[in-house]
Design a protein that fits this description.
The protein has about 280 residues and is of the alpha/beta class. It has one domain: Rossmann fold (3-Layer(aba) Sandwich), CATH 3.40.50.150. It has 13 helices and seven strands. A seven-stranded mixed beta sheet has the order 3-2-1-4-5-7-6, sandwiched between helices. Helix 5 (about 75-80) links the parallel strand 1 and strand 2. The structure holds benzoic acid (BEZ). Benzoic acid binds near residues 130 and 186. Benzoic acid binds near residues 127, 157, 161, 162 and 228.
Length: about 280
């Protein structure tokens, strides 16, 4: 189990803690699937907001870069456009097919079982690491994939990420007798805990910080839930899904929907730059 501890303000609150303390075995990746069309409609902002990572990465012409959790390849394409030779990996065959359709070198691969050996100058990961519930296995694979001195630049959900949404989901699922702790597919570590993991894997950490970033959504919160919270929604019978989504949306409306009807998600990013020992 990831050992990141909740902050004192969250201690003892299962809804707040679940996303940080979930057992890696609790949820199968199969509980989430990625439909590129639905993803583009409800989550196109993910790659856009990941663009600052490219400034941190500074991909150079001729470098070999791994994009870990490349999705449908929007950021991968930008790395390629900078002149780097980029390989994207993702566990979703649908997303990899969409990335290949852009002409990218994209491969289906589990981020917790990377198979590369000392072949990349840099690894980039945007909004993917929080779906990988065995972070030590991920970091072992990233360290093995990098050449000595290679850099690892990433952004993921950090401690407190989507806490308001998680609380609402928990309340509605528990009211139905479901066990949302078991269903939670996300890992949102604190910076101190993740830095310790990076160092244990052989990295020197240049910077690591939590960045609160409330994020306007392109549509209603229901679209976000359908796209990202599938593992929770699957805890109820399919014919109860629409009612569950509507109920969670009403719980969230006062805090996440403004008077103009604009929804946002209470994102908190964990962004870091690390370098493998040379
Ligand atoms: C995120 O990018 O922070 C995120 C995405 C999906 C679910 C939860 C968090």
């Amino acid at each position: 189990m990831p050992e990141d501890k909740p902050t004192s303000g969250q201690r003892g609150d299962p809804a707040a803690n679940a996303a940080q303390e979930v057992s890696p075995q609790a949820v199968q990746q199969a509980s989430q699937h990625w439909d590129p069309l639905r993803y583009n409609k409800n989550a196109g902002f993910v790659a856009e907001l990941g663009a600052p990572l490219l400034d941190l990465l500074q991909p150079a012409r001729g470098e070999r870069v791994l994009d870990l959790g490349c999705g449908e390849g929007a950021l991968t394409a930008k790395i390629a456009a900078a002149g780097a030779e980029v390989v994207g990996v993702d566990s979703s065959p649908e997303q990899v097919a969409a990335a290949k359709a852009r002409g990218l070198d994209a491969r289906v691969m589990n981020g917790e079982a990377l198979t590369f050996e000392a072949e990349f100058d840099a690894v980039l990961s945007n909004a993917a690491l929080h779906w990988m519930l065995d972070p030590d296995a991920v970091l072992r694979g990233v360290a093995a994939a990098l050449k000595p001195g290679g850099r690892f630049v990433a952004e993921m959900g950090g401690q407190g990420n989507v806490e308001t949404i998680t609380r609402a989901l928990f309340a509605s699922l528990q009211a139905r007798g479901a066990d949302p702790v078991k269903a939670c597919p996300w890992y949102f570590p604190a910076p101190e805990a993740y830095q310790a993991k990076l160092e244990a894997a052989g990295f020197a950490v240049g910077s690591i910080a939590l960045i609160p970033r409330p994020t306007p959504l392109p549509g209603e919160i229901g679209g976000w839930l359908e796209t990202f919270a599938e593992a929770f929604l699957k805890q109820v019978p399919a014919d109860d899904g629409p009612a569950l989504i509507a109920e969670v949306a009403e719980r969230l409306r006062p805090s996440l929907c403004d008077s103009e009807g604009q929804w946002s998600a209470d994102y908190v990013r964990l962004r870091f730059v690390a370098r493998l020992a040379g």
